[in-house]
What we know:
The protein contains 16 helices and 4 strands.
Amino acid sequence: xxxxxxxxxxxxxxxxxxxxxxxxxxxxxxxxxxxxxxxxxxxxxxxxxxxxxxxxxxxxxxxxxxxxxxxxxxxxxxxxxxxxxxxxxxxxxxxxxxxxxxxxxxxxxxxxxxxxxxxxxxxxxxxxxxxxxxxxxxxxxxxxxxxxxxxxxxxxxxxxxxxxxxxxxxxxxxxxxxxxxxxxxxxxxxxxxxxxxxxxxxxxxxxxxxxxxxxxxxxxxxxxxxxxxxxxxxxxxxxxxxxxxxxxxxxxxxxxxxxxxxxxxxxxxxxxxxxxxxxxxxxxxxxxxxxxxxxxxxxxxxxxxxxxxxxxxxxxxxxxxxxxxxxxxxxxxxxxxxxxxxxxxxxxxxxxxxxxxxxxxxxxxxxxxxxxxxxxxxxxxxxxxxxxxxxxxxxxxxxxxxxxxxxxxxxxxxxxxxxx
Length: 420
């Protein structure tokens, strides 16, 4: 019998309420994916170009990735509630400071450094909470939780567009900063980790024992799996975040859609980004990270080819291509954490995924810079899809030869599950 209670219910039932709470937290943090909606107003307001308007987004993603490993240690020391609340407040302060930016350096500091730090601190907590409470359904639980980050533009892109139209871009940052801080801090009070070695009742697991696939060494950087996963994750985020950062400008410049329609397409793409997380989480659980990675790269290659042949007015081609880009990026935000849980010790998940997540920062930094620089040099975003296609091919090769195959059930030990 499960004697631990969550929300007044036995923990194995109450734990399911932690997923929607985590989704809401990540939905607030995921407003970063709506950055393309802010770019044009900021370019006009501050008189900056495409590369400059991408820089705050790039810096935020890098800071976000760099803070993830540190946040993993903070969770162990201060607890999930404190870390989530602090992250939410710091992010909100960053948004409010952004509203006062009058030049590029101030924008980079406020949005890129401060808001990015807040997101980096809070992001991993809902995932770690889900991973701990769902040892029997880790892929689905993490995939469902992280869906909030991907679906965020579905809500925040049109919200930001309407607020910008009504109040201006500066006031919009202030409003979002205050609202998001209040929501994240409120939910933080309900997030907590299970007791050590907690497991759901036997009926929920499906057997008396849970099979665990683990690396022999505690030091993940000493394994082939680490380098294969890290490289594949870098490539996936390089392409995905490049595409996300240029979604609205590509719609307006290449396809010649108006700004309102472009914002609507970003909301549509957010659905695919969200769906990619549980979908690829399931694929990674059901098959292995190698198969999931190759599937993602195939989608990226198809999308790149579509955009290389897109012309003015090719709205359906644009929608199909960017839906695949966003779907594949969403997939990587599930493949990487699920693979980290599967390949390495689950009890070290927060720390291990923090290390793996540095790949996200590297991919974000180079991906967004390359996309903006190509636009400024060649005068069109079309040329940005050549490196995307090339990286999809390279990623497939890396996945095939360097992403370590998961051991079969017969090759691993089965450990008795400690019952609570």
